[in-house]
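Catalogue entry: protein
Contents: sequence, fold tokens
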Amino acid sequence: MDKSQPFVIPAGVTFQVADDGLIIENAGDVVLHTTFGRTLLRVVSREGDVELHGAIAAGTVVAAGAVRVHGTLAAESVQAGGTVTVTGHAGVASMLSGGDGSFGAGLTAEQVDCGGGLSVQGDLTASTLTSRGDLGVKGDLAARTGEVGGSVSVTGALTTDMLQAAGLVTVGGRSQVGTIRAGDIELQGEPITARGLQARNAIHLGAGKIQIDALIANEVHVDPKTAGRATIIESQNDLGTNAIKGGFRLADYAEMFGDPSGYLRERGLSAPGEGWSTPEASGRAAPPAPVAAPPAESRVTVTPVAPAIVMPPVEPAAAPVEAPVVAVTAPVEPVVEAVTAGDDVPDEIEPEAIEDDNAGAPRAEHPLHGQLVEAVQKIAARYHEGDLPPAVGHLRDLIESRSYDEIRAEITAIWSDLVKFHQKHGLRIQHQVTTTFNTINTLVKKM
């Protein structure tokens, strides 16, 4: 006959169960196989690791060592002195780790700061992104700003205002960027739209259409089938046969249009020979958590003096609580400012307009429209009308006007704006707001 697993809470542990969630703090490891159907408001291991199982909705998760989530994660803040590993999708406002980060099904965050490398299977969306090791994304990468101490590999599309890397930046899909500065740059997808590309060594562009203000490197290599416009191309090698318009050397630009220094500075670039720094592989402090991990024997689960907390799975109550929904997954594409580039005067490049075959047509109501309205009303009900975050009001307006395409395009930017609103006012996002927002995201993905 199987013996049921013990439920052990060691002495000296902070363990609070309330209607709005759990608070658990321990000196040693914290291992949870259940959340009792509640939000984890705060989970802290002051000297060990935190290990969570299931679909996790949390406020703050802090560990001196590693944070491991076997499932999905929706949280406001994750801090680890060591590594952070999530097997499913993670949606967090802030993720800081002293070691590597690994995410098995995508990551959406406002801030990501890894003391080591970062690996994401799926899309990575962030406002600010820092990785002191290599960054690998098996999907699309959308980051307003990024600093990487190693190399960057993106199999899908890249969207960024500014990306700096010490090593190689390689992108397999389309690139819509402001500025990239790196050791080497290889952009194989198309189209490529950029204000500026600068490499210490070489830039390689694949066959396809480009619209780039300036390319600066010791060597610039383009496929013979590469076409489009590049106002300035400064390199030490001959480009060979290509179909690129423009392509002024800096000396030619200066002779025809004047000093190019201002043009380069506006695009975050510098002339050859001028010093410019790439991110360091290390140097910043790890997140503020103790770094001394407990000895292996501290993970004892059968004695009341064990310094580790291990909660086995429990059977659901008569009225089971619905598992938390993972945070927003739709990627946000940072805006790359651009104006028309004339044929004679080099200037910023305007991306080609996308024709809308349905322009002027009345907006039809989607079968899921009623569920969207109900969900956004639930979010709005969590705030006083006079204190309604602008992001919620904007989302409500888009839903009421049946602007489904706009909602799909802006859903993550709206979430980001909502997080910033709460951070600015020192408020914690209610769990109901997070889960309902994810309900909207799920509905939008079905449209």
Notes: The radius of gyration is 25 Å.
